[in-house]
TrEMBL record:
CDD domains: Asn_synthase_B_C, AsnB
Domain Glutamine amidotransferase type-2: 2-208
Keyword rRNA processing: no
Top-level EC class as recorded in UniProt: ligase
EC number: 6.3.5.4
Alphabetical list of SUPFAM superfamilies matching this protein: Adenine nucleotide alpha hydrolases-like, N-terminal nucleophile aminohydrolases (Ntn hydrolases)
Protein name: asparagine synthase (glutamine-hydrolyzing)
Pathway the protein acts in: Amino-acid biosynthesis; L-asparagine biosynthesis; L-asparagine from L-aspartate (L-Gln route): step 1/1
Length: 624
């Protein structure tokens, strides 16, 4: 895991020093940059594989291509053997050099053979092209922007904008989407002109910017269809086959020359990953879990994590979250050009990562299991939308929008699939006045829907609605929200997070399974539950899906430091949010009555994180 950044100019350059400090937390072990033709490539290294021989930027033995790479390639040893048999030579044992070998042998099409997570940039001396690429699940981020005389790229938004030397205008549509749906759809970001590179895509940049074109080299949806067609008429997989596939993925994700551990929430996915890791040997597994003490409004997940740790013999380190952590860490996450990070769980993840970094450099987590094996309750409930829709339409007004039941009712009442599936992840903490002001300012509410409808139109006709929902989440919710947040919070602590439930050898196969195999009644992930029933506590196997919940309202009301921080930022005379919200609206958000509900507390926290980010993104003073 590392950080990359660089620029492709419209002319050949001799010298172009890069300031790598903005990405030093992603790669504290080494930094380097090189000029290649019209491109300058920069890298900060977190050493994981081939500690002595993997320095970057790296060139192949003949000096034809040079690369800067963020991520890990889990099948690099097998690819190396194949390439060596074809006559290629290697100077290191690094997975980075294997990417160069695959490119030189097979071009951009060779990227599809990489099993792993990655974002990289390479320069080809033969024709002067520079190629950016991102893994098919979008596990690793890569941002880029095209200015009149250069194309800039970086692993993080803040580093990119610093490199470009500009502060673009805010994309108000993306801001609105982030507030209402938790993330901006497609390749859009919160800044105009700044794009995410799409998952499974290479951006080929001709020498001196003569042409820039995207090349799709891998597609999760195409892999799902391949497995679906291969499995037509086949019997349901046995528990042994499911267990073998999950074990294979976890085993590949353990390749490292440094200590590793896992995040253990006590949920099914992280417990399955931990149980697989515990079979690897080499002493007790290091596991990390976060919780809180003394709260009345929520229940900590620590008891579930303890039960799993006891069952698998893991060495569990429990991290206690306190109100002061929110006051200390919110400015780190949201008070920069990379923000805002408005989910309270991100504070917990950052503290957990900082603690884990004291012992290990690599952690495995269960992200992606819900999307792969249909674990979210919405997957089961949505099948009954036609039956439940009319009733939900009648009661959704009574339930309100700031509750899980309210969100479910609002989704089920919608007949249009695209709108309904977007509503399932709707944010119950979006201040209505703020959203309305953004729309009046020019935000386009139909842009996200158009993107979703376009994706759904491209899915094969033979898919079930469940498979469509799963792949849509794999293509949008994960890369633009959960994975992006996970990458940023872990890399702030200089550790690498790996997600074995997102693997081309496992995930498309799981999605392609028939609905009846994955769901039973209102319960999902049935193949995984059955396969790991002999290995995990019953309380974990039977536990319903539950998001990470914190006593945020209780802390915002009762902790003086956190309360004062929220008031100081949101009620300051020059608060940036004042361009969209009145003082009275902000005061209402901070009232004890509003903070007494979970939804009200999240509203206040969303506003605070947005204010922290606007302070960095819009440094000019905005008067009341």
């Amino acid at each position: 895991m590392c950080g990359i950044l660089g620029t492709v100019h419209d002319h050949e350059i001799e010298r172009s020093p890069l300031d790598l400090r903005a990405l030093q937390h992603r790669g504290p072990d080494a930094q380097g940059s090189q000029v290649r033709g019209s491109a300058v490539l920069g890298h900060t290294r977190l050493s994981i594989i081939d500690l002595s021989g993997g320095a970057q930027p790296m060139s192949d033995v003949n000096g034809v291509a040079t690369i800067v790479f963020n991520g890990e390639i889990y099948n690099h040893a097998a690819l190396r053997r194949e390439l060596e048999a074809a006559g290629q030579r290697f100077a290191t044992h690094s997975d980075t050099e294997v990417i160069l070998g695959a490119y030189l042998a097979w071009g951009e099409a060779g990227f599809a053979r990489l099993r792993g997570m990655y974002a990289f940039a390479l320069h080809d001396r033969r024709d002067g092209r520079t190629v950016l690429a991102r893994d098919p699940f979008g596990i690793k981020p890569l941002y880029w922007m095209h200015t009149p005389r250069a194309l800039h790229f970086a692993s993080e938004m803040g580093a990119l904008l610093d490199l470009a030397g500009t502060r673009p205008a805010l994309d108000l549509t993306s801001v609105m989407e982030t507030l209402t749906h938790r993330y901006a759809y497609g390749e859009h970001t919160l800044y105009e002109g700044v794009r995410r590179l799409a998952p499974g895509t290479a951006l080929v940049i001709a020498d001196r910017l003569d042409m820039v074109r995207p090349v799709r080299f891998a597609s999760v949806s195409e892999e799902v269809e391949r497995h679906r067609l291969a499995g037509l008429g086949a019997p349901a997989p046995t528990s042994a086959e499911v267990e073998e596939r999950v074990l294979d993925s976890v085993s590949h994700h353990t390749i490292a020359d440094v200590p590793l551990g896992c995040f253990l929430s006590g949920g099914l996915d992280s417990s399955v990953v931990a149980q697989c890791l515990s079979r690897e040997g080499g002493g007790p597994l290091r596991a990390y879990s976060v919780g809180f003490q003394g709260a009345q409004s929520e229940v900590s997940e620590l008891p579930h994590a303890r039960a799993v740790a006891t069952a698998i013999g893991a060495d569990l380190r429990e991290i206690e979250l306190r109100p002061a952590d929110f006051a200390d860490l919110a400015p780190v996450l949201s008070g920069s050009l990379n923000g805002p990070f408005a989910d309270p769980a991100d504070i917990a993840m950052l503290k957990l990562s900082l603690a884990a970094a004291e012992d290990v450099k690599v952690v495995l987590s269960g992200e992606g299991g819900d999307e792969a094996f249909a674990g979210y309750p919405k997957y089961a409930v949505d099948r009954h939308a036609a039956l439940l829709g009319p009733a939900m339409g009648a009661v959704r007004g009574l339930l309100g929008r700031r509750s899980r039941l309210g969100i479910a009712a609002n989704a089920l009442a919608e007949r249009d699939r695209a709108v309904r599936w977007m509503r399932w992840f709707e944010n119950d903490a979006a201040p209505a006045g703020l959203v309305g002001a953004l729309r009046q300012g020019g935000a386009q509410p139909g842009r996200a829907r158009a993107w979703v409808e376009d994706r759904l139109a491209q899915y094969p006709a033979g898919w079930s609605d469940l498979q469509r929902m799963q792949v849509l989440d794999l293509e949008s919710w994960l890369p633009n929200n959960l994975l992006s947040r996970g990458d940023y919070t872990t890399m702030q602590a200089s550790i690498e997070q790996r997600v074995p439930m997102l693997d081309l050898a496992l995930t498309p196969w799981a999605v392609a399974l028939p609905d009846r195999v994955k769901l039973r009644g209102l319960r999902g992930k049935m193949p995984v539950r059955r396969a790991f029933a002999p290995h995990l506590p019953k309380q974990v196997l039977d536990r319903p899906k539950s998001g990470f919940r914190l006593p945020l309202g209780e802390w915002l009301r009762g902790d003086p430091g956190l309360r004062d921080m929220a008031h100081d930022h949101l009620l300051a005379p020059g608060a940036s949010l004042r361009q969209w919200m009145t003082t009275a609206e902000v005061q209402d958000l901070l009232s004890p009555e509003a903070l007494s509900s979970t939804g009200g507390a999240k509203l206040a926290w969303t506003a605070l994180c947005l204010e922290l980010w606007l302070g960095a993104a819009r440094p000019q003073r905005v008067l009341a």
